[in-house]
Structure formats: C-alpha cells, structure tokens
Amino acid sequence: MRHTGSIAARELRAFFVSPVAYVVLTLWAVMAGTFFISNLAGFLTERDRAVQMQAFDYLSQLNLNDGLILPFFGAMWIVLLFLLPAVTMGLFSADKANGTEELLLTSPVSIWDIVIGKFLAGVAFASLMIAVVAFFPGILFVYGDPEAGKTLAGLLGLLLVSVTYVAVGAFVSAVTRSQLIAFVGALTLLLVMGVILPFIVKIGMGGASGAGGSWLVDVMDYVATGAHTEKLLGGLVDTADMGYFAAVTAIFLCLTKAAVEAVRWR
Questions:
Q1: Which of 61, 83, 135, 221 is deepest in the core (most CB within 10 A)?
Q2: Splitting the chain (266 residues) into consecutive groups of 10 residues, what average pLDDT does each group show?
Q3: Rounded to an integer, what distance in angstroms lies between the CA atom of residue 2 and that of residue 55?
C-alpha cells in the first residue's frame, strides 16, 4: 500500500476545494456550541434548584460528566448521523460523475490503496470534527473538575463510531455515481444501524412473549451501533465494543473494495 498516503492526502485536499467541508464544519461547530451552552444552562439551573431546595444528597451525586458532558456527547452523536454522509458522499461517486474513475482504476495502484486512502481521508476529516467537540469539555477542565477518564472515553466513543460511519458512507458512495443518492443512502443506512433497527424489533415484539422475542431484541441491540456507542459515551470502555466497531468497519471496507473491484472488471 505504497500509494495509500498520497491518495488520502489528495482526497483530504479535495474536501476543502468544495464548499461541503466548510459547510459541514461550520454547522458542526455551531451545533456543538449551541448544544453545549444549552446543556450547561440546564445543568446550572438544576444545580441552583437543588441548592434552593437543600437537596444535599442529590447535589453530592450531581457531576459534570453525567449531568453535562454525557448529554452533550449524546447529542453530537446524533448530529454525526446526519453530517457524516455529507462528508463521505463524494468519496467514490464524485470520481464516477467527473469521469476520473477509469483513470484512477487503470493507474498503477491497488484497489486497497484506493479504498484505504479514501477511507483515511474521511477518517482524518471526522477526527477534525471530534477535535472541535473536544474543545468544549476542555473548557470545563479549566473552570471545573470533570473526570478525565470518562471524558476521554466519550471522545473515544465519538471517534470510533465516526470511523465506522465513514466506512459505511464509503461503501454507499462506491455503489452509485450520484452524490445525492450516496448522501440519502448513507443517511438511511446509518439511521437504521444506529437507532431504528432495535426500535422496530422491540415494537414488533411488543405482542410476543418476552421469552420468545428477547433473544432477537438482544441480537438487534448488538448489531446496532447505538448500544455500543452509548456505553463508551458514558465512560465504559469495553474491548467487546471496540471489537464491534473494528469488525463493522472492516466488513464495510471489504464491501467497498468489492464494489470498486466490480467496476474495474465490468
């Protein structure tokens, strides 16, 4: 994979040639600031109310991580579902639309060079988005005392789910030449994987007996990214969850490679 780095650098530069990157980063920063300020105001209001009511037991349990940082990270995870498809929609479909796909596929680079290079460019952009989010809880370390371990675990959760979502978006982009279809397709798939699938199964099993439907609910909960992400955002780092994200990322990268290779031999 000698050419992976050059392909990743080219794709990362291409992000900032179009206005998409600037629009996504601007929306992301504005929404992060809005959610953080809103959650901070809510946390301070709750604290003041507890002081007025002299609920000292409740005050002793109130902390920045559970009361402020966790809801903030949870909100930003949902925003990722909607913004990352805009980042990944042109990874492969743009080459097809511009007629440069054949030049890339006939160049002396392997399919894996192309797939991993474009994937790494998307991961680099997603990492920049996570760095923007990290700025806000970082402020709390200057003026407060949140738990560093829980905060870093939450940021790790956002990064891991972002990497997985980039792989999903890359696959969808590889199977179409329309960036709009790539955006809608990736958004739909991420919503299903993230939150909708377990919800649908639980609703469908509502009329079934608990013993008969519980195993399917458990399977869908494991397949979906939501449960794994929520544990990391809450500060629980489990190797099983990290293995899940690694496995799903690898699966979609292999699917992307197969989709690109199919074009070469068409």
A1: 83
A2: 82 88 94 93 80 69 81 93 93 81 72 91 95 93 86 94 96 92 94 78 55 64 85 89 94 93 68
A3: 62
Rounded-to-integer distance, Cα 50 and Cα 259, Å: 57
- Distance from C-alpha of 249 to C-alpha of 13, rounded to nearest angstrom: 23
C-alpha span between 91 and 104 (Å, rounded): 13
> Which two tokens mark 103?
């030049």
Gap between the Cα atoms of 183 and 238, Å rounded: 31
For 183, the token pair is 């955006």
Largest CA distance in the chain: 72
* In 123-212, beta strands by DSSP E: none
Q: How far is CA 90 from CA 18, 175, 180, in A?
A: 10, 11, 9
Query: Cα dist. 21→12, 18, 44, 121, 250 in Å?
Result: 10, 7, 34, 12, 25
CA distances from 71 to 28, 29, 78, 185 (A): 16, 17, 11, 28
Nearest to 193 by CA among 216, 161, 215, 238: 161
- Using CA atoms in the order 54, 57, 62, 66, what is the torsion angle rounded to 10 degrees? -140
pLDDT at 103: 66
Spell out the domain ranges in the chain: 4-264
